Structures are given as structure tokens and as C-alpha cells.
Amino acid sequence: MKAWLCENPIGPEGLTLREQLIPEPQAGEIRVAIKAASLNFPDLLIIQNKYQLKPPLPFVPGAEFAGVVEALGEGAEGFKVGDAVAAFSGTGGFASHACIPAGLALPLPQSMGFEEAAAFICTYATSYHALMDRAALRPGETVLILGAAGGVGTAAIQIAKAAGARVIAATSSDEKCARCLELGADATINYGKTHLREELKTLTEGRGPDVIYDPVGGDLVEPAFRSIAWRGRYLVVGFAQGQIPSLPINLALLKGASLLGVFWGEFAKREPKANAEMLGRLAHWHAIGKIKPVLDAVMPLEQLPQAFARMASRQVIGKIVLRCD
């Protein structure tokens, strides 16, 4: 089998494409012949040794993929050979085959092909858990989505609109703003050339957004939080800008606002029943056309370094998917 190995966690330059023996599934595992895998921001962090998960070297990166069940280990339940599945396993996806615990696999609905499925679980589960579970988003509320053109951002636009919210999509270019409008955003802010707080005052008539969805972090946090509405909820989703910011905690007091952490992976481990119900709801939303993954590019598995370079350029709209032929 083909697999990208991380033998030295210094970034994409530390990856090597190797031929490996096809693994045999252990008890409770299934082996998946991978058809497509997607890039998520943690994939970049993990090969730079900057993520909370630090697998022993060497390892195959790639948290999210879709494919066909090829073999079952002893006691593996819920699947048969030939089933189409998607999975979010943390590592192992940038390869032609992977063995994973059966409980990490999601049966694919007929409405979803492998490339969409590979770009589905992480972004939509994160965004639904954030907006609907943590923030308890209500119809008619206003949501500000930072980094709105990225993978989780485009998913958040669709989920917030499906929930009946008004969406303000904030991103770093006019091209990205235009794409966010196509995805259903009601208004956009190009924070690359305008003042975020002033734009929010205008768009909300001085009231501020009820919910702020932030996968970016960095220098956007304080101006965004200062703009939040009374009883607003600020969702800490990630730090794509690279900097973990400090925030004057008195701002939460002055606005009667909540600062809410969003860690979907831990939620899935601690509350598996609730997570399974959520994933089923998202699969149904996809089947009826409420949500649809946004694919920036589909590239061959062999072009993983180029895919990481595109991700690092900050030009990606939606998600990059690798195809394994």
C-alpha cells in the first residue's frame, strides 16, 4: 500500500511517500480501502509537533477519510465487506489503506460520494456542536463567523442558516466574501481591508452579534468580543492564525457574555450517544440538501505536499481533498 509517513515532525518537508505492507485489522477493527481523504488544519499542526495529539514516530497523518470496508477484525460489528464508510480517526488517512476501530466509522448515506464524505465529518460535526449544542443558537439570532471561507467556516454558514439565523461572514478577501454570499451568508466583512468593529456596528445597528464563531484566534479576538451583543456567546473553535490570544476578562462581565470552548473530538469521546445522534441529523440534512461540503480542490494522494502548501497560502475556500486511485 502507499502511505505518507511522518518520520520527523518538522512540517510537510518531513513527509515521505512509502510502500508499506497492507495492515491486518485487529480485534474490533475494520480495514478501509481509502478512496478520498481531506486536509484539516490539525493535520498541519500534528506534522509540526504543535498539536495536543503527538503520535509515536513514524506515523501516517490524515485524520479524515472515506472508503470501502475491505476486511473485519474479530468482533468488529456494524459493518460488512463492501460497505461505504467515512471516518475521523486522528491519523492514518493519507494512505491507500487504514485499520480503525469500527466505532469510528460512519456508514455513508446514498446521497454522499467519497470526496464529499471525506470532507464532511470534522467540519460539520465541529460547527454543529459549536452552534447548536454549545451556543444553543436560536432562529432570528445573528451569528458572526470568522474565517468564514475555510472548512469549518463554510460548514458553519450552512448550519447557522439551516437553524434560521442571520449570518455575517468575515474573511480576508473580496473573493472569499463573494463565495460566502453564494453559500447563504446575509452579509460579509473583509477584515483584510476594513475595520471589524465598525462594520459590525453598521451591520447590527449597534447591537452586535449574538454568537461569534471563531476558528481563527489571534488579533481578531478582542475587537470581535468587544462587539458582542448583551448575553452573547463567543465560541472558541481554534487558532488558525497561529497565535493564542489574551482577552481582558472584564469584557465578559460588561457584556454579560459567555466564552465557550468547542472541542468536538473530546465531546465525541465523552458523549458518544449524543455525537451519534448529531451525525445522523447531519447526514439527514445532507440528504435533503440543507448542507453540502465545499471542495476547494481535489488532488491525487501523491500531491500531499502541494496540498499543504495551498492550505498554508490561506487561499483555500472550503476543503482540499486527496483522491486515492
From TrEMBL:
Q: Which InterPro entries match?
A: ADH-like_C, ADH-like_N, ER, GroES-like_sf, NAD(P)-bd_dom_sf, Quin_OxRdtase/zeta-crystal_CS, Zn-ADH-like_protein
What SMART domains does the entry give?
A: PKS_ER (SM00829)
Q: Please report the stretch or stretches of sequence annotated as the Enoyl reductase (ER) domain.
A: 11-322
- What is this protein's name? NADPH2:quinone reductase
Question: Membrane-crossing residues?
Answer: none
Q: What is its EC number?
A: 1.6.5.5
* One Gene Ontology molecular-function label: zinc ion binding
Q: Which UniProt keywords apply?
A: Oxidoreductase
User: PROSITE patterns per the record?
Assistant: QOR_ZETA_CRYSTAL
Which top-level enzyme class is recorded in the Swiss-Prot or TrEMBL entry?
oxidoreductase
Q: Matching PANTHER family, A to Z?
A: QUINONE OXIDOREDUCTASE-LIKE PROTEIN 2, SHORT-CHAIN DEHYDROGENASE/REDUCTASE
